[in-house]
Amino acid sequence: MEYRRLGASGLQVPALSFGAGTFGGRGELFGNWGDTDAREARRLVDICLDAGVTMFDTADVYSDGASEEVLGAAIKGRRDQVIISTKTGLPMGEGPYDAGTSRSRLIRACEDALRRLGTDHIDLFQLHAFDAGTPIEEVLATLDDLVRAGKIRYSGVSNFSGWQLMKSLAVADRDGRSRYVAHQVYYSLVGRDYEWELMPLGLREGVGAVVWSPLGWGRLTGRVRRGRPLPEGSRLHRTADFGPPVDEERLYDVVDALDEIAEETGRAIPQIAINWLLRRPTVASVLIGARDEHQLRQNLGATGWSLTPDQVARLDRAGATPAPYPYFPYERQEGFARLNPPLIGGGTR
């Protein structure tokens, strides 16, 4: 397993990490994701560690804390072998102190996560969403206090916009606070919004991407096909409304390209989709999920080989999206383009 530095930090993380959203299985959304118990989870953790996958990601909101509890049970006795990443900020109840990233909420959320995970520290503690009601200064000061107390090692964010992340980094620099080193983001062949603003920001500011839903919310498994209804057992029947929107024609163009490359390489479609992501700028780790051992072993096959430049270019073209404002002049007009060299492929991305 390849290890990469997480942003500008000294923390090295595996190129593939395990997303524990399937652990616990409570509620309308997470109950449909999976209901892995502690015994099954321990087996999946065993397989991950054998493959060099040492980072495990969860969140307090996943199954109302059950995901953290199951993960804690699964890693019991081998805490020193794993990197724990968890998130907080989304509502855990209806009360005024059950959501957000205020000082009181962050401290309590951290203590609750430590208890559920059965550990004395969290390696990567992330804000699950931007809290517009809490001053950024308060958030950063609280996270610094948790670092000094030894309860967290590094901090990051998830689902922030460009201005929210940049403002936070600027305040951290101004006040001498620890900077965010990670941004957990949605990014896939059929969801490339990350490339327009967040990727250049991450590259220039040293914020590494931890990618969630690399298979486009389950659409890049090879089972979703042009002109066919969703397979009967697909979770999309119950969870599509929770996930990112997808342009169907672009989705099918991407699946067609994946089919061609699967024929050429002998690799499974999910492996190709994940391998493409691993080549992208700023991507430190891609989260893979699995409800069973077969899914996990298949996803682990995304590493240890490389797509050819031609195959990458074909996937790039299949999943390309029109540039939104203010980015389209930089792709369409030479004067604009000269001021902003491309990050990847063609154009300003």
From TrEMBL:
Specify whether Oxidoreductase is a keyword of the entry: yes
Which of UniProt's keywords are assigned here?
A: Oxidoreductase
Assigned GO CC terms:
cytosol
Task: Tell me which Pfam families the record gives.
Answer: Aldo_ket_red (PF00248)
Q: Which GO terms describe its molecular function?
A: oxidoreductase activity
Report the superkingdom from the record.
Answer: Bacteria
What are the NADP-dependent oxidoreductase domain coordinates in residue numbering?
Answer: 17-318
User: PANTHER family from the xrefs?
Assistant: NADH-SPECIFIC METHYLGLYOXAL REDUCTASE-RELATED, OXIDOREDUCTASE
Q: Would you tell me the protein name for this molecule?
A: Oxidoreductase
Q: Which organism is it from?
A: Actinoallomurus iriomotensis
